[in-house]
Amino acid sequence: MKFGLRLRGGLLATLIMFGAPVFAPVGAVFVSSSAHAQTVQSISVEGNRRVEVETIRSYFKAGPGGRLDQGAIDDGLKALIETGLFQDVKINRGPGGQIVVSVVENAVIGRVAFEGNKKIKDEQLTAEVQSKARGTFSRAMVQSDTLRIAEIYRRSGRYDVTVTPEIIEQPNNRVDLIFTVNEGAKTSVKSIEFIGNNAYSSYRLRDVIKTHESNLLSFLSSGDVYDPDRVEADRDLIRRFYLKNGFADVQVVAALTEYDPEKKGFNVTFKIEEGQQYRVGSLDFRTSIPNFDASSLRSFSRVNVGSLYNVESVEKSVEEMQIEASRRGYAFAVVRPGGDRNFDAHTVSVVFNIDEGPRTYIERINIRGNTRTRDYVIRREFDLSEGDAYNRALVDRAERRLKNLDYFKSVKITTEPGSSSDRVVLIVDLEEKSTGDFSVSGGYSTTDGALAEVSVSERNLLGRGLFAKASVTYGQYARGYSLSFVEPYLLDYRVALGLDFYQRTQLSNNYISYGTKTLGFSPRLGFSLREDLTLQLRYSVYQQEITLPSYLANCNNVVGSSAFNPSPAFTNATTGVDPSLSGNFGCYSDGEASLPVRKELANGKTLTSALGYTLTYNTLDNNKNPTDGLLIDFRQDFAGVGGDVSYLKTVADAKYYQSLVSDLVGLVHLQGGILNKIGSTDLRMLDHFQMGPNLVRGFAPNGIGPRDLNPFGTQDALGGTKYWGASLELQMPFWFLPKEVGLKGAVYADAGGLFDYQGPTTWSVTNEMTTTKNSNCTPSTVNPATAGTCTGLVYDNGNVVRSSVGVGLIWASPFGPLRFDYAVPLTKGKNDRTQEFRFGGGTSF
What is the spatial distance between Cα 318 and Cα 353, in angstroms, rounded to a whole number? Predict the structure, then answer.
């Protein structure tokens, strides 16, 4: 009599494909006592085509003496089923008690194809599924792949997706596998609500999270697509925001999501328990390390008594102090913050405890997932290496630096036990992303007109961490190209070397009568002195020349080989203009450009060679849309290291942002600059500061400061050697609009001044006898016979305070940042040019 167990693969697969639960009975193969005398070699195999007999026999493990017992036969049966190679497996007794293993092999997949998928490419789906061409067909694996494809679509916001697998039989036990996808509509977030938020409005909190409500412009972004992982990450963002603003007890209790069939989207609700807002009541430093002065670390603390309790400041203080202790030779020092809350006074007593940590060393740093980026590019972001003392603060800093590189989708550093109790292994898990960009940018402003740019850039060139960019600009008034290259680690030091080569052409427009051509090269070095303080050293060498239309520089008052300077009577008879008007003489009588402009034109190409530096202090909470923090730039350039010009130019610019009540943001902007003459070389007009709406809104570009007063010339702006500016601005959201629209308004008041022109005012050159009015020459004293001795420039050089008030519209649009300003000048110079409306913006697509 034969006893056995048979597993029907066809029935099992059918049940799996239709989603029915399958309960496979667990049985044993019953053989007579003579079976115990069987060996592995006495097992016969039937039905196999691709799998070798010895491979099947290898799943049956013989016991002592090489004999098979009942347990070994049962284990062999289970192991064969689990391989997924067989559709059907059974064990029976053959003649003479021999064990017979009968198998029906699974088919081989000829091809795997996808139909109906438009939003996700075949390549991405092929990489995700486990069923592969030329692999073994498994119905369980097909079901798993079906669920995986559906999950991919759900992650992209399409919860109505359906995936249907189709199996097409082919000759020679082969099958084609087709996944038919019905993608369905995008499932978006229809509403975001907050419960329990009293200190901050829902409008403000929507600016903190990454998930956005669906709106008319959502097709240009993916922030409104429902993603459960992103919603969970938003919980942490809300919590961190409250902790940064003094709410030490905050809890984001839940993020509730509910699908609304009518809206065909999700409603997301965040439940918040804010707690009290605390300030720092006291600050103390304690240590258990002998001979270590804990109070010496006070200067590395970013926590101040009386300020809001800020968890981020505490964390940065811990990091800075722990690193400083390591530098002093206490490699295993650990800084642990503590705090006692005073619930009545709403204060926290912050204590930094510096103790001796466990003596643990780094055995290895294992990097995984970097398929393109070289290992050394990742390792150089660590301030420690194999064999060093383990320092969690330095590990956290390395993780933050790797994320800031923007080479990877995700970065995670974990530890594993090493070869001994005092050894750890750092595991760096990475997921790389595309680092190349090709963009076509377009924009328009009232200053530069229409502008287009095509650029190609790579942030991680050849996987070596190099940056390279090439761009071409073509616009209504501005054209040119530029090439940039950055080596972030020069000679393996944390010093960035940048090289810039550029060519720019600025055409004459409504604000300047002349054009300029500039060809330059600038190497630079960048240093990070602290996380909030950077220094850049640079050298600039560029060649510049002025271009003018011929009618602005022809000086048509030359007859034959002799200069002809007409008398006032001749000019009056010829032009019909009252000769008592100043400037109605010589070359200016038909509208020439200003004297400094024509002199610069006559000088031809000018070479400038300058050394400079920029010191930047940045504590902004967000560089693109700041609401709190300080940004200070201090720049100096010294020209005269060779070249044709020499000067010292100093510029300072400071912006301070402060969050006010009810989502209002205040901005104080102060700026100033001074240009000093060095040596005997005269200052050029082109080296002067030119100001307009960049200093005081409501004025035209080049509309402020000293200006040529000749009424028959182009009256060019001459610029100044000194300027100052101050601005107060209040930015406010439009609460009646959805946050995702990105619109906010601004009201502001500006004041500033530009003065002290020190460029050329006189010029004597053959056939260029200008006889304009100045302090030493008036029309009544002009003698046509000696007019050439009366040359000069009449200009306005008064130090007048310009001021204005205005309103603005700021739009963080999907097309790029746009800003509209309408400003009304309150005080201005007699010869200033105003422009009440101004617009600027652009985008990449």
Answer: 10
Q: Which long-range contacts (CB under 8 A, 24 or more apart) does 821-827 make?
A: 821/693, 821/697, 823/693, 823/697, 823/698, 823/748, 823/750, 824/698, 825/696, 825/698, 825/699, 827/800, 827/801, 827/802, 827/803
Beta bridge partners of 434: none
Residue 748 three-state SS: strand
Q: Answer whether residue 814 shows pLDDT above 70.
A: no
Number of CB atoms found within 10 A of residue 383's CB:
16
Owner of token pair 């100001």:
691
> Whole-angstrom Cα distance, residue 159 to residue 574?
83
Contact 280, 348 (CB under 8 A): yes
* pLDDT tens digits for range 657-695: 998 876 789 999 999 999 999 988 889 999 999 999 999
The closest of 515, 521, 721 to 607, measured between CA atoms, is 521
Phi then psi dihedrals of residue 469, to 5 deg: -150, 140
- CA dist 523 and 542 (Å) reads 12
| Closest to 522 measured CA to CA, from 495, 496, 484, 494 | 484
* Residue 331 reports pLDDT greater than 50: yes
Query: What is the per-residue DSSP string for 523-591?
Result: EEEEEEEETTEEEEEEEEEEEEEEE--GGGS----EETTEE----HHHHHHHH---TTSTT-SGGGGG-
Q: Give the whole-angstrom CA distance, residue 366 versus residue 215.
A: 45
Cβ-Cβ contacts under 8 Å for 618 (sequence gap 6 or more): 532, 533, 534, 629, 630, 631, 632
Long-range Cβ contact pairs of 824-831 (< 8 A, separation 24 or more): 824/698, 825/696, 825/698, 825/699, 827/800, 827/801, 827/802, 827/803, 828/699, 828/800, 828/802, 829/704, 829/705, 829/796, 829/798, 829/800, 829/802, 830/796, 830/798, 831/707, 831/709, 831/715, 831/796
SS (H, E, C) 654-672: EEEEEECHHHCEEEEEEEE
Contact, 300 vs 324, CB < 8 A? yes
Look at the block and give the residue holding tokens 């100043």.
Answer: 582
The proportion of the chain whose per-residue pLDDT surpasses 70, expressed as a percent, equals 82
Cβ–Cβ under 8 Å, residues 673 and 722: yes
Residue 376, strand partner residues = none
Three-state DSSP state, 148: helix
- Say how many CA atoms lie within 13 Å of 401 toward its Cβ: 19
Cα-based distances in Å from 594 to 546, 599, 779 = 13, 9, 19
Distances 667 to 322, 462, 620, 746 between C-alpha atoms, Å: 35, 42, 12, 10
Radius of gyration of the chain (CA): 39
Q: What is the DSSP letter of 489?
A: S
Specify the range with the lowest mean pLDDT, choosing from 8-22, 279-293, 591-605: 8-22
- The neighbour count for residue 544, using CB atoms within 10 Å, is 20
Predicted model pTM: 0.66
Q: Residue 610 and residue 539: Cα distance in Å, rounded?
A: 6
Q: What three-state secondary structure class fits 301? A: coil
pLDDT of 241 over the 50 cut:
yes
Nearest to 105 by CA among 86, 78, 80: 86
Per the CB < 8 A criterion, the answer to whether 346 and 279 are in contact is: yes
Residue owning tokens 């000018």: 606
Q: Which residue's entry shows tokens 């398929």? A: 371
353 close to 335: Cβ distance less than 8 angstroms: yes
Q: Shortest CA distance to 314 belongs to which of 353, 274, 342?
A: 353
- Contact (CB, 8 A) for 230 and 209: no
DSSP state of 98: -
Is residue 781's pLDDT more than 50?
A: no
| Integer Cα distance of 11 and 5 in angstroms | 15
CA 836 – CA 823 distance, rounded (Å): 5
Cα–Cα distance, 306 to 329 (Å, whole number): 33
Pairwise CA distance, residues 157 & 225, whole Å: 5
Give CA–CA dist 392/366, Å, rounded.
Answer: 16
Per the listing, tokens 């609401």 go with 627
**Residue 322, both tokens:** 């722990």
Is the Cα dihedral 434, 436, 438, 444 positive or negative? Answer: positive
